From TrEMBL:
Domain of life where this protein originates: Bacteria
Transmembrane intervals: none
Annotated organism of origin: Tumebacillus permanentifrigoris
Catalytic activity: a fatty acyl-[ACP] + phosphate = an acyl phosphate + holo-[ACP]
Quaternary state and interactors: Homodimer. Probably interacts with PlsY.
Subcellular location per the Swiss-Prot or TrEMBL entry: Cytoplasm
Protein name: Phosphate acyltransferase
Free-text function comment from the UniProt entry: Catalyzes the reversible formation of acyl-phosphate (acyl-PO(4)) from acyl-[acyl-carrier-protein] (acyl-ACP). This enzyme utilizes acyl-ACP as fatty acyl donor, but not acyl-CoA.
A GO molecular function held by the record: phosphate:acyl-[acyl carrier protein] acyltransferase activity
Gene: plsX
PANTHER family: FATTY ACID/PHOSPHOLIPID SYNTHESIS PROTEIN PLSX, PHOSPHATE ACYLTRANSFERASE
Keywords: Acyltransferase, Cytoplasm, Lipid biosynthesis, Lipid metabolism, Phospholipid biosynthesis, Phospholipid metabolism, Transferase
GO cellular component, one term: cytoplasm
Pathway note: Lipid metabolism; phospholipid metabolism
Length: 331
């Protein structure tokens, strides 16, 4: 198995990317990790430590966070992201991981790697913690702002295949994010998507309200990209604000500081449960290869987990399962 790594993408590149790759290389000796980017910069980060399962492919360009996605992918042919995507397209890598420009990554996935035949639109699938201690797969969280009912149906079908491998489930529960739990709720998009999902070859459990989503109501939550992205950012912002506020409360006086000391192990465990770095990246489902979007501000641990997610995606044959499920559905 070979996984290409966009070494130059992300807020903390290339240092955090190289460190995370080193950690992943040590943990998976049977996987070859190919760092794509400025060879001199990569070598400085590697130092004298370079396991035999790490390779370097030199590139001369970088797609930045400010670059316009389509233009940058088309013009910066020798950028680390485009070269990594081309490696997947040409069979030189089984997948690739990037913490770089999200729009550019989606464009590279579509224009360079290409879509799975019959898939209308790709979707970013994010792994979220829940209050019940289980993780949940949510998609789309930003790949497509204007979805159609068929797109939401295909999101459910693709996520069903991925969740089987990700959560080791035989029949993942698929839910549709909506304003009410009763059938017939929502706008035209949600109503028509409900009908399609209800007739799918997977376990559709119906509409899920946002307030119920974090309480183990489903294993996969389907949403359009606009709604899913807003929900993701709301939860991220609320989580950061909550922990900041708790710190203020516990540091307010002597008694609260003592309480914080007693509760510290439990609070640390609770915080880790909601730490994005423990959940890896967001697969771009619908692309004809394992394309994983790591968080833009990924540290070494977060990037290591994104690589692990790519490894599991490839080893679990998720692409093959999606293609098989599409064939069954079209019969």
């Amino acid at each position: 198995m070979r996984i290409a790594i966009d070494a130059m993408g992300g807020d903390n590149a290339p240092q955090a990317i190289v460190e995370g790759t080193l950690q992943a290389a040590r943990a998976n000796r049977d996987v070859t990790l190919v760092l794509v980017g400025d060879e001199e910069a990569i070598q400085r980060c590697l130092g004298s430590e370079r396991p035999p399962n790490i390779e370097i492919v030199h590139t001369t360009e970088v797609i930045t966070a400010d670059d316009e996605p389509v233009r940058s992918v088309r013009r910066k042919k020798d950028s680390s992201m485009v070269v990594a995507a081309r490696m997947v397209k040409e069979g030189q890598a089984d997948g690739f991981v990037s913490a770089g420009n999200t729009g550019a990554l989606m464009t590279a996935g579509l224009l360079v790697v290409g879509r799975i035949p019959s898939i209308e639109r790709p979707a970013l699938a994010s792994i979220w913690p829940t209050f019940c201690g289980k993780a949940m797969l949510v998609l789309d969280v930003g790949a497509n702002m204007d979805a159609e009912p068929l797109h939401l149906f295909q999101y459910g079908l693709m996520a069903n295949a991925f969740a089987k491998e990700l959560f080791d489930l035989k029949k993942p529960r698929i839910g549709l994010l909506n304003i009410g739990s009763e059938p017939g709720k929502g706008d035209k998009l949600r109503k028509e998507a409900f009908e399609l999902l209800q007739n799918g070859s997977f376990d559709f459990v119906g509409n899920i309200e946002a307030r119920e989503a974090m309480y183990d109501k489903c294993d996969v939550l389907v949403a359009d990209g606009f709604t899913g992205n807003n929900m993701l950012k709301l939860i991220e912002g609320f989580g950061l604000g909550l922990f900041d506020r708790l710190r203020d409360v516990f540091m307010a006086g002597t008694l609260t500081k003592l309480a914080a000391f007693v509760l510290k192990p439990g609070l640390r465990k609770f915080k880790k449960t909601f730490d994005y770095s423990e959940y890896g990246g967001a697969p771009l489902l619908g692309i004809n290869g394992a394309v994983i979007k790591a968080h833009g501000s990924s540290n070494a641990r977060a990037f290591e987990m994104a690589i692990e997610q790519a490894r599991r995606f490839i080893a679990g044959g998720v692409l093959e399962q999606i293609r098989s499920d599409l064939e069954v559905q079209q019969q």
